Amino acid sequence: MNLFEKEELIRQAAEDFEAQSPEALLSWAVERFPNITLACSFGAEDVVLVDMLQKVSPKTDIFYLDTNVHFQETYETRDRLQQHYGVEFVQVLPKLTLEEQAQQFGEELWKSAPNQCCNIRKVDPLTDILKNYDAWITGIRRDQAPTRANSKKVEYDVKFGLVKFNPLASWTSEDVWNYIRSNNIIYNPLHDRNYPSIGCEHCTRPVAVGEDPRAGRWAGFEKTECGLHK
Q1: Which of 11, 33, 53, 174 has its CA 20 to 30 A from that of 2?
Q2: Residues comprising the binding site for [4Fe-4S] cluster?
Q3: At which positions is [4Fe-4S] cluster bound (predicted)?
Q4: Contact yes or no for 122/217 (Cβ under 8 A)
């Protein structure tokens, strides 16, 4: 398939699946792109997609970026999901340990240069793992942040050079939680403690009533994305 044909396929699929269910898009995605993977951060959107994918294509790879500084609750959610579904999530680690990072760039890099820390512990590992696939699935929703407002359900990811599927792009937070409750899905208990968006432990705080749902990420910095979805 040449570039023009791929672009036309993506454009048409985005149009065709805009009003269809996430499950319908997932079914088409894994059939059309067998070499596909789901990126899972163990947040609310991603546990929904894990459940849907297990029903549609249980053998499809699911990976997570292990920054080594996730909340203990996040690791426990991973373990509970693996046990429940009988799957093994692919662990993707940074090239540098926390000790090596501190030696090269100073202690607590996330405080002095959060973008650099995210690049080392998230963006570079993601770049490496996605080289093994033709397409990836994410839990992006348009109403999560202004930077995601124009996300299509199917698009070409120029940054990483592969097709990107966002099956929940048109969903609201209420849609996500209705699915979780209706299907009794395992989820990160931090969501019940005012953490609507969960990242690394050092860079995530609870959100107060009335605050933007992503206000708890990188508080004190003019930063709202780790760089995975720009």
Answers
A1: 53
A2: 117-118, 200, 203
A3: 117-118, 200, 203
A4: no
